[in-house]
């Protein structure tokens, strides 16, 4: 028992120490990824849509940016989770809104709860997906009018933009690797070695 406690203490100390280290390069690339990912969506929104239709930039994309640019090794930040979690949650949110449109105390918890269970079931758990479902049932104005188009734009199109930016900025240096799948890592390594040989 003493060994287990000592080991747990040592591991905890190491994790806390590692979490408090300031890695300026890591923070720099996280900043750039988030800046360009959210910036690109905001730019498209401000230049392509009328002021009354400014719905391309939804709040849950901010939370996704924390994961896909700042915690790139997290299982919840992987592309399958990013896209699958948001799309499934958007479908759930719109469906719940269509079934129970005027009872927010029922539609909001149903949307979030069903989206969590479906993300778990499909192995696409992505915490910001819960916010995507909640936005679908609690927003006023243009989002409810979109219906299932909400799934395609802003949700899917925004996720694709965030993912493309993440693939670029999270693989720009050899110290960062995204997504966290062996198959993708091998492909990047081959491409990197091929470039070095030239």
From TrEMBL:
Pfam families named among the record's database cross-references: TM_HPP
Protein's recorded name: HPP family protein
Residue intervals of the HPP transmembrane region domain: 22-179
Keywords (A to Z) from UniProt: Membrane, Transmembrane, Transmembrane helix
Bilayer-spanning residue ranges: 28-49, 55-72, 148-169
This protein's record includes keyword Electron transport: no
């Amino acid at each position: 028992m003493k060994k287990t406690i000592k080991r747990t203490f040592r591991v905890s100390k190491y994790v806390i120490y590692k979490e408090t280290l300031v890695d300026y390069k890591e923070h720099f690339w996280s900043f750039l990824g988030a800046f360009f990912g959210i910036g690109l969506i905001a730019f498209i929104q401000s230049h392509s849509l009328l002021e009354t239709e400014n719905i391309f930039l939804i709040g849950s994309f901010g939370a996704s940016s924390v994961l896909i640019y700042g915690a790139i090794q997290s299982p919840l930040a992987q592309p399958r989770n990013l896209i699958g979690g948001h799309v499934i949650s958007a479908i759930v949110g719109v469906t719940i809104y269509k079934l129970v449109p005027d009872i927010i105390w029922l539609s909001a918890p149903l949307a979030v709860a069903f989206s969590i269970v479906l993300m778990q079931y499909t192995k696409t758990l992505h915490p910001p997906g819960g916010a995507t479902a909640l936005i679908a049932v609690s927003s006023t104005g243009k989002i409810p009018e979109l219906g299932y188009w909400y799934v395609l734009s802003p949700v899917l199109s925004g996720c694709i933009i965030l993912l493309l930016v993440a693939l670029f900025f999270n693989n720009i240096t050899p110290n960062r690797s995204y997504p966290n799948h062996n198959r993708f890592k091998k492909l990047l390594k081959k491409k990197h070695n091929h470039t070095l040989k030239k």
